[in-house]
Specification:
The structure is a homodimer. Chain A is of the alpha/beta class. Chain A has 17 helices and 18 strands.
Chain lengths: 474, 474
């Protein structure tokens, strides 16, 4: 464990937290938010509101400044006005507080000379005094196992994902999204303008955290670009990294300047990164979550060949097209598989082959199990997509689309990447809710499930590319 | 109105329907389905089950053959075994029935020489006797205003869409999808193998139907390719056509052969078609519905410039990137607009510009109305996307996200294409259901709403391309 490990680790499990800049009226957005949310999510360390006059805030004893605290706080959150940040940072240095999260905004992101100058000052003060600083302009660290979650409305759930992000909103939405699919987040950091600690710093830290198995990044700037490239390559050999690069376009880059004051540029760097490191490029919240599901839950595929199991002639044609469109293959099945399919699939109205078009897979779990058995035994098949519709009156379908325990066990115990698609994208609120619930149920059982074939195919193609890249690196 | 108009029109509003091949036991899939569903959906003409022995089927008087009917049936549905189809077709010719829907399958799609031979025979019989034949291997005509709907579980609703499709399943799912968004279907035809009447025949027919304003096609083969190309160009000048070409890939083409027995090939034809005619290319059910929403509900945009109205810094960056990725522009706003934005948008935590990042638009309808007013007055803005989240505890949002009547009126009465996005793609069944319900509510008010920025951007880029193409043709 490097010094960096020890140092950054404190951010996610501090023994005490001081918040500078808390209004007496709890409930306002600002410093008070952290006090309230950390208590709500079960943080067990000491919490110190800092207020020039108040004796008590929301039942917590308040202190006039950092030096009057009974101990050196292990984490200090700065929620004061931007112009006050440099002097409070200097106070941190004086009392020996080293871990600082600057929540305050009003720095380079506002586009004024004064804002940029203020940001340079905090960088300089941090460097001179050896302070570790998250931010400014961000939601800071998040770690459910320590009760350190600032967005308590969605229950924090520890799990295998690490998140490094220049957007608090997108971080919050991702943890919410993954939570709904039963996937927890071990640690996340919303790092805002990243004036001191940058993306590569957090990446190096999370690479060594054994509880983190996949890393999601939302980056508007690379930070130290060479270091990011080097780290992404090295870390990628051990765990998948899914990077959403905000500000890819000129318009995005213009917005990045107003959001985190970053320079989005360096297009060549990003091209090299996605080409050379095996990192997956996400371009939306769905991409982000879809790739994390596949890379987090599935084993490495042997090749690009997908067996498409579903019902409906038009759907089968379209599903084949979609897989090919995403760089996958839909191979002809081997003769033993075809022999058995020809025995069980009726000639009219169904298609024995790949894609398989046979409605029986929707409501006959034993038949589905048999088909999965054929798929796993067939050397032409590297991955499996089962297209599953929500039962609907329109197709004279009834009953329960939940997977049987036998199917779940068979899929999770065997070693071919297998995903389900659940049609829950339409405009009918009831169908959508039932489809989403079914999708979440399957994900919670440890099997990725997607709301469309397109998203399933994209996720599998990323899974395949990542592992092919990793294998090529040896 | 051409002869073709009169002739094909009967399929969608026949005075009487005879079904050949009905089992005594109603409830089975087969000919009985049509009798049951047409009665359920309010078909007012005579229904004649044809059965060699039965006197009555499900309360309807049955007849032993077509010649024993009290009248010449205006539509005959053939649900007999494939090998019996030629002789029943000849019987149709003898009694003078000209409109035939062959539901039966077992022709070229089964891939045997016998199947192909049978299909050639029905084509020959139809040609010799001047029979108009839909099919074989399909669900036939659909017309809610005539009570002619074979998938009665989803209520038929007349509306501005026409559908021409080689997949019954996809046709059914599209009508279901559009219905849930408040959009009805005037006429649809599931044409299966299209052995006699083909895509261009139906396209020519629907082009002249004034109740149809947009046409959706799912085609596995072009039919008469030159004629399709010519018609798509001509019809496209009057109404938008959204074509989903099944079998684009080699895999899809292989499946097409087993689905409708078609040759999917002719890649050059399809390339030319999408390049030269302004037809929109869909590649999934979502594409299909998304394009129909935009092209059906929105006026022509003047240019490619989109104003992105939303909240959240990371989202704003990503939304800008996504629009550019789809060929749209996100222009800088004109000075009067910026002046007003700078007056109303706080400096910290928000971004005054395009994209606009200002959470107030979520819960202050009067402010949203003011921003829309600025957008419609700004010459840089051709289209508007309002990114709207479902209220959620995680973002300390509460209340109702429904649009006020003032916002609906303002958007629908003004002439800049405007769409909403509703975040309802996640894994939380409740959020998804509320998001989908909100989305449907906005669509029903006449404003397209999409579950993701990506889909909104794609739909607007198709809207822009279609109208630019149409304008260039003069």
């Amino acid at each position: 464990m490097s010094a960096n490990q020890v140092d950054l680790g404190t951010f996610f499990n501090p023994g005490s937290v001081a918040v500078v800049g808390v209004s007496r009226k709890i409930g306002a957005f600002g410093g008070a938010l952290f006090l309230r949310e950390y208590r709500k999510s079960g943080f067990r360390g000491a919490l110190y509101p800092i207020h020039p006059e108040a004796d008590e805030i929301d039942g917590l004893r308040a202190y006039p400044n950092l030096s009057s605290l009974p101990e050196v706080p292990e984490l200090v959150i700065l929620a004061v006005k931007a112009k006050l940040v440099p002097s409070v940072l200097e106070e941190c240095a004086r009392v020996g507080a080293h871990h600082i999260h600057i929540f305050a905004s009003g720095f380079s992101e506002i586009g004024t000379r004064k804002g940029a100058e203020l940001e340079r000052r905090i960088t300089a003060i941090a460097r001179q005094n050896g302070l570790l600083v998250i931010g400014p302009n961000c939601m800071g660290p998040y770690c459910p196992s320590s009760g350190l979650t600032a967005w308590g409305a969605v229950p924090g759930k520890p799990g295998p994902v690490g998140v490094i992000s220049q957007s608090g909103g997108l971080t919050q939405r991702l943890t919410e999204y993954l939570y709904s699919l039963g996937i927890g987040t071990e640690k996340a950091v919303s790092m805002g303008n990243a004036a001191v600690l940058d993306g590569p710093d957090y990446l190096e830290f999370m690479a060594e955290d054994d509880r983190i198995r996949t890393i999601a990044m939302y980056l508007e700037s690379a930070g130290d670009g060479r270091r990011l490239l080097h780290l992404a390559r090295e870390v990628g050999k051990k765990k998948p990294i899914v990077i959403w690069k905000g500000g890819e376009s000129d318009v995005g880059a213009r917005t990045v300047a107003s959001h985190t004051g970053s320079m989005a540029g360096e297009r060549r760097l990003w091209d090299a990164l996605f080409r050379q490191t095996g990192a997956v490029q996400a371009r939306s919240m769905n991409d982000w979550a879809d790739a994390l599901l596949a890379l987090g839950l599935l084993p490495a595929p042997r090749g690009k060949g997908v067996f498409l199991i579903g019902g409906g002639g038009g759907s089968s044609v379209a599903n084949g097209d979609t897989c090919v469109h995403h760089g996958l293959e839909v191979p002809r099945l081997s003769e033993p598989t075809m022999e058995r399919l020809r025995e069980t699939v009726p000639t009219a109205g169904s298609i024995a082959g790949n894609p398989l078009d046979e409605w029986r897979i929707f409501d006959d779990p034993e038949y589905l199990l048999e088909i999965l058995g054929l798929a796993y035994a067939d050397p032409e098949v590297s991955m499996v997509i089962v297209d599953r519709m929500v039962p609907r009156a329109a197709f004279h379908m009834s009953g329960d689309a939940s997977l049987t325990q036998e199917v779940v066990d068979f899929v999770t115990r065997n070693r071919k990447p297998t995903v389900f698609t659940i049609d829950c994208d339409g405009g009918d609120a009831d169908l959508t809710a039932r489809g989403t619930a079914l999708r979440a149920e399957i994900c919670r059982a440890g099997i990725p499930a997607y709301p469309s074939l397109r998203r399933a195919a994209w996720a599998l193609s990323q899974l395949q590319s990542y592992h092919a890249h990793r294998a090529a690196l040896g």
